[in-house]
Amino acid sequence: MKHAKTAAVCAAAGILTLGLALTGCTFWQKTESVYVTSISQSTAADGSLQYTVFYSDGTSTVLAGAAASQEIPNVAKDAYEAYLAETGDDITYSEFLEKYLTAEDDSNAQAVAACLNSTLKIYAESVVTESSYNPFWGTTTVTDVSISTGSAVIYRIDEANDTAYLVTNYHVVYNEDADTNKNGGYIARAIHGYLYGSENEPSPIDEDNDGRADTDEDGYTEYAYGESAIAFEYVGGSVENDIAVLKGSLSALRALNPDVKAVTLADDYYVGETAIAVGNPEGEGLSVTQGIISTENEEITIELGGEYRTYRTLRIDTPLYQGNSGGGLFNLSGELIGITNAGSMDDENINYAIPFDLVQGVADNILYYANDGDSSTNGAYRITLDLSVMADSSRYVYDAASGYGHIEEEVTVSSVSSRGIAGALGLETGDRIDAFLVNGTEYEISRTFHIYDILLNVRSGDSIRIRYEREGALQVSDSYLVSTADLGPIE
Question: Whole-structure pTM over 0.70, yes or no?
Answer without folding.
Answer: yes
